[in-house]
Amino acid sequence: MTTDRTLYLIACAAPPARRLEVPIRAAQRVGWDVCxxxxxxxxxxxxxxxxxxxxxxxxxxxxxxxxxYKLPSQPDVLPPxxxxxxxxxxxxxxxxxxxAISDTLALGLITEAIGLGLKIVALLHLNDAQxxxxxxxxxxxxxxxxxxxxxxxxxxxxxxKPKQGNxxxxxxxxxxxxxxxxxxxxxxxxxxxxxxxxxxAAPQDVPHVARHDLSGPLGLTGAALEVGVRRxxxxxxxxxxxxxTFSGDRAAA
Length: 253
Ligand SMILES: Cc1cc2nc3c(=O)[nH]c(=O)nc-3n(C[C@H](O)[C@H](O)[C@H](O)COP(=O)(O)O)c2cc1C
Fold this sequence. Notes:
Largest sheet: 5 strands, parallel
CATH class of the largest domain: Alpha Beta
Strand order of the largest sheet: 2-1-3-4-5
Radius of gyration: 20 Å
Number of helices: 10
Bound molecules: flavin mononucleotide
Order of helices and strands: EHEHHEHHEHHEHHHEEE
CATH topology of the largest domain: Rossmann fold
Helix content: 25-40%
């Protein structure tokens, strides 16, 4: 799988931060190069409350896990992002983000990303007592107005009763769905945003598409097209009066 799209997964100090392998592997399966950034609190938890978890995540992503600002003299060690998934997003980072506070690397990246026009999806994790604070709804509205997909409520995260959260029920899939391209969706099939993480269909289970007529505006990016071609045995692209045929990985005409 080629990885010409970079996803920054930004995780705060809430329980789903102990399951980061799940969204990382799922995003990698559809071609994202995933870089992990933690808040300092999340980094402390994964360092002091877990053994070798950071090292394992570095191994999976193939990148250093970043959690603090680099010094001006230090090089950038991560490729620039094409999209950002902030999950789990805590109440704390939400409040700071909505007010443009940037005292952590995670906040610096997500505050700046708004101005850069990057695709940003945020998946909160908080209990219903935290969520009832009147500032929370305002912060969510504010970020939504700024163009961020904040998945709270239907189709996203539903706050649980205090001390009754289920870390394995965190809807990572909803966050990933909001980032998927059409080709990713095709490959993964119907996705249940509240269900377990989707597994890509085995190649033999993907229907063989003999002819695909993309009339109208071409909505597929090069990467998405490649995913499609790799999964379909043959693709005929109809562009005006000419037809391009792709077989397997190679363009025939
Ligand atoms: C065991 C434990 C669970 C927590 N769970 C949550 C949570 O689900 N959501 C939340 O917003 N804060 C939660 N917190 C509080 C945050 O960890 C705390 O506000 C922290 O400062 C967040 O820092 P960050 O936003 O920089 O990651 C929890 C704290 C503890 C000790």
